[in-house]
Structures are given as structure tokens and as C-alpha cells.
Amino acid sequence: MKRKRKNIVDDAEFSGFHARLTVYSSGGPFLDGYILSIIAIALIQIRPQLHLNTTWSGLIGASALIGIFIGGFMGYVTDKFGRQLMYTIDFIVLIVASILQVWVQTGWELFIIRLILGISVGADYPIATSLLAEFSPKKQRGLMLGVTLIAYYIGSTVAYIVGQVMLNIGPNAWRWILASSAIPAVILVLLRMGTPESPRWLLQKGRKTEAEKVLKQVYGPTASLQDIVMPDGSTGKTSYFTLFMPGYLKRTLYVGLFYMAAVAPLFAMLTFGPEMLASYHLFEGASGYGAAIISALFLIGCIPALFLVNRMGRRMLIIVSFTGMTVGVLILGLFPHGPLAMIFVGFVLYAIFSGGPNVMEWLAPNELFPTEVRGTAVGITTCISRFGAVIGTYLFPWGLENFGIGPTMLVAAAVTFGGLIVCVLLAPETTNKTLNAASQPESVSRRKSPAP
């Protein structure tokens, strides 16, 4: 019997190239966490100086999220024109916008600049995660894409600490606090230079010679185009309509809705972490450090999920995770004035169990859609999620002011429970499948299944 040829891309050993690409691709999530969290500290000084009311505080807190919603549509651009080119351009825009925050004088100016920051971050999600997924070996794909989410919480934690320390500079410290995001962005632009284009994307565009050159550069002289044969059912055409066609519509709804249910309460908590902790009378006078601790708990929750995503399986992991998250936030809503230990348990449960959805947020869309619409899928599902996150972040301070922390967190519990229902009804299983197999629509998979 003829021995099946080992696929050099899917079965590759984890290499230095994979490690570097994982770090570089994690830059967008790191800056996302940093930018969305640093505003929470800066608002302490911004509110009185720019005379912001609750409405404007909510708008500025949500501005970067609105930008991420818009930037998600750039997934279509990266599918049309390539991953590598946009991989650097988006961060250059982010650097300029970060620095411009030093000179803002009104709420409107700050809103617009942070909108641009969000667009840059949102554009990076489909660019970087698609590139990473298309180079990942199947056994390490969950780990590599999951690490990018850990970078988000590292960025968030660092932002709270940096912001709290920099507040001591003076009454205008907030300008330099906001501009500080330019520093990691500059470092990442320099690191990303020279990253190769995705050979899957090149092949899908008919650029076979370039694709084979990249394969040999990364995997060695024995690599060939046979290692990235396009999956059955692949059209080669980039179109938004593909995401809503039979076979993919269910996947689009699943990723978009569970993503939205996961981040809507989460981003509101991170953006207004100090106000939320003050409502629970925790870390008064040093709420930035308290928010950093909460963010660090979310980071810790991602670590076991990275290793369970293959052992437990994608579907079971996300269902169990949403169950634990719902219980945690429900405790925070039912016992707003309860014992400190009870409140801490609620935070810990929500943060630790958030690890499952966090790991799946970029793993799922990159696995469930083919190369020609992979970036588009990441972008569109990010847009769906950020729509909920914008609403949650905008309404969170309003809810605290008008209803208090208890009812506000009960609403968050209802949203999280909705995510659990979505996962039970729609979550597929793609554990241990190659990227080609995982991205095939159900109709193609059924046609290929042998008759009983």
C-alpha cells in the first residue's frame, strides 16, 4: 500500500518562525487591550478638564470599539490584496493617531482620534490572525491563535499599571498616558518588517511561483504546492455573500453571536473598571491597580483554555466556559453589597471561565472559513461582536448611574446566558482537523462522506 505523503505545512514541527509570527501577530490584540483599558485611567483627569458628562464619557469609552467595528470590514481588503502589505500599514496609522492625542482640546477631537485608533486595531485582527492561521501546524493552531488573546490581557494589565503610575505626573498626565500606545506600536512595526506573504493566499490568487518560494523559504526545499492544496468547495472568489450562503450562514451566526455575548459585558468592565470597582467599594484610591488585578485574572483564565482546546474539544470547551461565566456574573448581580469574598468569587469565576471564549474568538472564524474569505469572516464576526460591545460600553456608565451595579450586572448575566444558548445550538467541532477540512462547508463534507 502506498504510504500517504506527510503534509509539511499541516504536520510541521513548531519552529522559530512560528514563534516569531505568533509574537508579531499578537501585537494587534496587545494594543487593543492597551488602548481600550488606558482610557479608563485617563478619563479620571479627562472628565473635569474637558467637562464631559455621562453621555460623552460613554462615547469616548466606546469610540475605539466603534472604530474596531469599522476596521473589521478591512478583512475584505486583506482577502483581496493580501495579508503582508496591510500587516504594517495599519500600525503606522495607529502610531500617528496615538501621538495626536497629546493635542486634543475637546471631547469631539478625542472621540474622532480614538475612532481612528480603533479602525487600525480592527483592521489588524483579520490581517494578523489570517496570516497566523495559514502558517500554523494543525496541532499548534489552537495554541498559536489562543496566545494572541493572552496578549490582549497583557496589554490591558500593563495599561492599567502604566496609567496609574503616570497619573502622578500632573494634571495633564492623561495626554501622555493616551499617547503611550505609540511606543509598543513602533516596536511592532519594526519587528513585522520582512514577514512573508501567506502562501495559501498567493496560491488562491494564482501566484504559484511566489507561493512555492515562500513555502521553501519557511519549510525547506522539500516543501511544494501539494502541501497547500485548496479545499473542496473553494471558489477562489472573495465575497461577503459567501458568509451567508448555505453551509456558512450557521457558522457566521455562531461566531458572531457568541463573540458578541462574550465581549459586550467584558469590554464594558475593562473600559470602566475603576468605576465598577468603586461601586463595589474595592481598591478605593487605587482603582487602576485593582483593574489591573481583574485584567490579570482574565489573562490567567486563558492559560488552561489554551491546553484544553484540543483535549476537551472546541465545542465542549466553549459550552462549559459560558456556563461558568454566567454563574460568575450572576453572583456579581445578585450580591452587589455582599461579603467581599462573595464578590471576589464572582469576579474570579467570570474571569477564569472567560478563557474558553477568549481562545475561540479568533480560532473559530479562522478555522471555519476558507482562504478566500478567511479575513472577511474574521472582520465581519469582529464587527458583529463590537456592535454589542459598543452598546454595552456606552450603556454601562449610564446603568451604573441610574440603576446601580446590581441590576447592571444582571443584564450582563442575561447577555452571557444568551451566548451559552448560541453555543449549545450552533457550535461545531473542528478539533484535530486540518485547516482545509475544518473550513469546508457542511454541504461539501456530507457529499464527501462515504455511503453507509
UniProtKB/TrEMBL annotation:
Spell out the family assignment given in the record's similarity comment: Belongs to the major facilitator superfamily. Sugar transporter (TC 2.A.1.1) family.
InterPro entries referenced in this protein's UniProt entry, alphabetically? MFS_dom, MFS_sugar_transport-like, MFS_Sugar_Transporters, MFS_trans_sf, Sugar_transporter_CS
| Protein name per the record | Sugar porter family MFS transporter
What Pfam families does the record point to?
A: Sugar_tr (PF00083)
Q: Which keywords belong to this entry?
A: Membrane, Transmembrane, Transmembrane helix, Transport
The membrane-topology field of this record reads: Multi-pass membrane protein
| All residue ranges annotated as the Major facilitator superfamily (MFS) profile domain in the record | 21-431
Keyword presence, Nucleotide-binding: no
Q: Where does it live in the cell? A: Cell membrane
Span-the-membrane segments of this chain are 21-44, 56-78, 85-104, 110-133, 145-167, 173-191, 253-274, 286-309, 316-335, 341-364, 376-396, 408-427
